[in-house]
Every structure is written in structure tokens, then in C-alpha cells.
Amino acid sequence: MVAVTLDRLRKAYDATVAVDGVSLDAPAGGLTFLLGPSGCGKTTILRMIAGFLEPSGGAIRFGARDVTHVPAEQRNCGMVFQSYALWPHLTVAQNVAFGLEVRKAGAEEIRRRVGEALDMVRMGAYAARRPNQLSGGQQQRVALARAIVYRPEVLLLDEPLSNLDAKLRLEMRGEIRRIVDEMKVTAIYVTHDQKESLSLADRMVVLRDGCIEQVGGPRELYERPVNRFVAEFLGETNFLDAEPEGAVPGGRAVRTAAGMLVSAVVPDRPAGTRLVASVRPESLRLAAGGDVPADRPALRGTIAESTYLGEMAQHRVDCGGTMVKVFELNPRQASRRGQAVALTAEPDQVVLLDR
Ligand code: ATP
Q1: Whether the CB of 99 sits within 6 Å of ligand 1
Q2: Ligand 1 pocket check: which of 42, 158, 196 to mutate, most ligand atoms within 8 Å of Cβ?
Q3: Tens digits of per-residue pLDDT, 287-315?
Q4: For the chain, what is the HEC assignment?
Q5: In the chain, what are the domains?
């Protein structure tokens, strides 16, 4: 297993800087996700790692080996694309065998390895079919088999699930995790789907405009975003203009436009710095207004809008003109519109960020 290291990697197209000095370690045998909005440079980074694009600066290492200027076919990378990119006129087995034939493997070795790769993606029974006789999910399994058949050290996945429907996507998520673990391959996965990355990643890298905003594990990024961009990119949140006040049990009292909260996550900033509290809708607890004593910090308001979704209800609470979004799990009342409510959150779930 090899770690993949990017060292101040850069790619400029004339005036456009697509990747602007990215330094990163993708741990050996782990699943590292690159994510960010369209145009942030994810695919450009992946293509440079694969060797399809020449960097304008910086270095790429596989373990101790500098591969920055090594041709793609000598890098030992497998790649899976969003579009599958299977040959329509070849059978499943022939598609998977292609990479081995290019590498001049013997007939017996090809037969054995193709069988193993198809078994690994659970497509052994489909070896004689052509791609147009397969579902989208099955085609993507074949594309995976083709990428892993020559046992690459590094597996690169470019939005591999975005052409699949929601159910298949869930199923394939589990499959990709299993294959990466079984093969002990170092995988780098590009997506703009935050659920996919939160559920699968060992390490997540959030990019914006060709630069890294934050690197960390899924919980760290979701619960401790370093700025508004990361907080917003990884799920829904309420941003409330916030002013920290004195110490209280659990942290610092925080005055917001919607009422009082307590935060355990207050950045060290000079007095008067403009801050914003990020509070996720599911971390707010909803109580009837009278149930929270008046002297306890809470956001107080009236439910302006409720949407029942089965497993949860989404409410918009009007707190003195500031709207706060709240998710209530397992809702027991059909509609709570017009009710006076108090909202509280655990201090470690009230994250203060620079405004
Ligand atoms: P998406 O999620 O839409 O695939 P991405 O994050 O993968 O986006 P890239 O495809 O890496 O983004 O593109 C990064 C930036 O580089 C964009 O601004 C894009 O317009 C620009 N870019 C990419 N390829 C070229 C090219 N061949 N010539 C000029 N600019 C390019």
C-alpha cells in the first residue's frame, strides 16, 4: 500500500488557475474524498494524479516515488469514471481483460484475473454479456472490475455513482467501501455529494476555487467546520449573527438575533470581531414555550411553517423576525403551526465562526 502525497500541486490554464497550490496526504489503504462545488478543481486534481494532465507546478508522490512526470501507463492507477466508458462491442469479460492485454499478460493469467475481478464486484455470472444488456449499476460494477483487475496501487474514482438512481447509489456505496478494504488499495474519490462522502470517507478534503478549505474526518468536518463555506457545504445549518458574552455552565453565553444560546466552541478573536453561530437544524431541541424556564438561554418564537416528512418534520420558527430551521425527528403532532416554542442546543453544537 502507498500513500499519495500532493505537494503544492498547481494547474493553470492561461488565466484560469484551476488548482492553486494543493498539499495533501491521502493515507495508504484509505478512502480520501475530494469534494466541493462545480469548478473547484476536483477533476483536475484527479487527472493530474492519474497522469492525464501535466501539472503547472508542485509534485505528486506515490509513497516515496515521485510520479509527477511519469507517464500515466507507468503509474499503476485504476480509474473509474462517471460515464462507465465501457467498450460497447466487447463483452463484459473482454472489457475487463483489456487493461491486462495492454500490459501483455498471458492468456491463463488474464482468464484467472478477470474471473477474480468480476467475482469481487459480484458480476461473475455476466461475463459473456455486452454492456447494453446490463443495468447502469451493473455497468458501473464492470467499470470497477476493469479498474481493479491489474491490482493498481491507487484507485481513482470520478463521481462514480452520479448516473445511478438513489437506491443503487446506496447499494454501490457499500460495495465500493468493501472493495477498497478487501483490495487494500489507496482510493481517491471525487464527488459533490456530501452524503456520499460523509458515509464513506476516511478523510475528506473540501475545496473551493482550487484551494483546500479544510481536511478531516467526516465527523470533524460536519461538527467542527472552520468557516461558513464548509459548514454550509456539508449540510443544512442556521447562521445567526452572534455576540459572545460571559461564561456560563457549558461555555459562553451567546446573544443572537433569534435569542440566547450557549456555545462551547468560541474562537479566540479580539473583542468586537463579528461572528456568526452555526447551528444545524437537527441539533435544535424543540419544546413548548412554557416548558423552558424564562431564565434559561433559548431561542424563543412561533412555528411559522411545518412540513411533515414521515420520519421527521421540518419547521421554520419565527424568532422575533429571524427565521430558524428545526428538524424534529419522529414527530408526534400532525401540525404545530402557530405554537409558541423554545429552542435549545447542546453547547458543543453551537459553533461560532467568523462572519
Ligand atoms: P465539476 O464538479 O463541475 O466536475 P470540478 O471541481 O471537477 O467541477 P474542474 O473540472 O477540475 O472542476 O475545473 C476547475 C476549473 O478549471 C474550472 O474553472 C474549469 O472551468 C477550469 N478548466 C478545466 N479544464 C479546463 C481546460 N481544459 N481549459 C481551461 N479551463 C479549464
Answers
A1: no
A2: 42
A3: 988 888 888 899 999 999 999 998 999 99
A4: CCCEEEEEEEEEECCEEEEEEEEEEECCCCEEEEECCCCCCHHHHHHHHHCCCCCCEEEEEECCEECCCCCHHHCCEEEECCCCCCCCCCCHHHHHHHHHHHCCCCHHHHHHHHHHHHHHCCCHHHCCCCHHHCCHHHHHHHHHHHHHCCCCCEEEEECCCCCCCHHHHHHHHHHHHHHHHHHCCEEEEEECCHHHHHHHCCEEEEEECCEEEEEECHHHHHHCCCCHHHHHHCCCCEEEEEEEEEEECCEEEEEECCEEEEECECCCCCCCCCEEEEECHHHCEEEEHHHCCCCCCCEEEEEEEEEECCCEEEEEEEECCEEEEEEEECCCCCCCCCCEEEEECCHHHCEEEEC
A5: 4-230 (3.40.50.300), 236-354 (2.40.50.140)
